[in-house]
Amino acid sequence: MPNGRAPARRVTIIDVAKHAGVSTTAVSKVLRNAYGASPEMQAKVRAAIDELGYRPSAAARGMRGQTYTIGVMLPDIRNPFFADVLDGVNAQLGGTDYQVLIASACNDEPAEAHVTDAMIDRNMDGVILIAPLTSRKRLERIARTVPTVVVGRHGNSAVYDTVADDDFTGAGLVVAHLAELGHQRIAHIEHDETDPVRLTEMPNAIRAVGYRHAMQAHGLGDFVDIASTTYTQHGGYLGAKQLLARPQRPTAIFAGADIVAMGVLDALTEAGLSVPGDISVAGYDNTTFAAFAPISLTTVDQAGHQIGVNAARLLLDRIADDSRPATQVKLSPRLVTRRSTAAPGGGAAAARTASQDPVL
Questions:
Q1: Best label site of 41, 135, 161, 201, fewest CB within 10 Å?
Q2: Is the pLDDT of residue 349 over 50?
Q3: For residue 100, how far is the Cα from the chain centroid?
């Protein structure tokens, strides 16, 4: 070694057994909370573990059947909504031996395949896949290999559990709110989607369908106006630029996600337009920054924390019994109104009226 020192040797179960004056079998029983470990034995072993700083080897535990690790795949680590989901996952796993390992697939299907393969190769006990782009066939192949919960996808499967928001209803809440304020030219920014299966399952596609349906239901079918970009801040910026270039620009923009709405606000500021005086803006997700006073974004609360709680609960159930019937959980969204929406042309007075932040 360059510094003349050999690397520190990892403390083993044999070291713990010698230090505690018990057999390695006894240490194993304590680590597994197995039957046959007396309180006195548990106390001796736990004390030895603390004194030696022993950490169980995940690889060795995997060879015995469990690694006590759960993989969570995110489509985009920059979207703050996923932090709410992770917070719920961690809350549900609190007090258990499970550790969460996170990877981002960057909204890329080949990258998703690489991430999920890596999770399987590392013998993770279960995986939570958030809004995966992966085909249904591949999702089911993953689920037959490792207990799996899919978040955000609306398609049902017999081999994996799902947790999703009622995106169709959530989009309708936004359109209804804007129509009640007097808007007709309500535009929508969607994530460009072409895969026929994902068009029936992905949350962004369901929200776009909900927007169209609600516009028709409110007699505004002739004013349907959609910009197809991406569910990113830059996508929101580009979508707003497209909409502002229309011969008749919208008086309200429903961004499909809060992160998209941030890009919309950037574009409107750049164009010298005020919110909501010139154009009202609404998002989806009710992320933390939506409530910040300078932003005060009207949005749909899809209970990201509760989505995470449900996903972790279902995964623990499936790890315990992978043969049980698949479960589908759908949460009901709520509209949170803030200062970013007001009557068309209402200016500052309307903005003050909309600033009460009620939850509908």
A1: 135
A2: no
A3: 14
**Which of residues 185 and 56 earns the better pLDDT score?**
185
At residue 240, the pLDDT reads 98
Q: What are the extents of the domains in the chain?
A: 13-56, 69-165+304-325, 167-303+335-356
Same fold, 13-56 and 167-303+335-356: no
Cα distance between residue 332 and residue 124, in whole Å? 31
What pLDDT, on a 0 to 100 scale, did the predictor assign at position 7?
Answer: 53
Average pLDDT of the segment spanning 32-44 = 79
Q: Which CATH architecture has domain 69-165+304-325?
A: 3-Layer(aba) Sandwich (3.40)
The pair of structure tokens assigned to 208 is: 């776009």
In the numeric block, the tokens 């030696």 are attached to: 52
Query: Confidence band (pLDDT; 50, 70, 90) for 332?
Result: very high
Three-state SS for the chain is CCCCCCCCCCCCHHHHHHHHCCCHHHHHHHHCCCCCCCHHHHHHHHHHHHHHCCCCCHHHHHHCCCCCEEEEEECCCCCCHHHHHHHHHHHHHCCCCCEEEEEECCCCHHHHHHHHHHHHHCCCCEEEEECCCCCHHHHHHHHHHCCEEEECCCCCCCCCEEEEECHHHHHHHHHHHHHHCCCCCEEEEEECCCCCCHHHHCHHHHHHHHHHHHHHHCCCHHHCEEEEECCCHHHHHHHHHHHHCCCCCCCEEEECCHHHHHHHHHHHHHCCCCCCCCCEEECCCCCHHHHCCCCCCEEEECCHHHHHHHHHHHHHHHHHCCCCCCCEEEECCEEECCCCCCCCCCHHHHHHHHHHCCEC
On the question of pLDDT at 167 being above 90, the answer is yes
Is the peptide bond prior to 333 cis by the omega test (within 30 degrees of 0)? Answer: no
Class of the CATH domain delimited by 167-303+335-356 = alpha beta
pLDDT at residue 86 in the model: 96
Confidence band of 60 (pLDDT split at 50, 70, 90)? low
| Residue bearing the bigger pLDDT, 297 or 358 | 297
When pLDDT is cut at 50, 70 and 90, the band that residue 8 belongs to is low
Compute the mean pLDDT over every residue in the chain, rounded to the nearest whole number.
Answer: 89
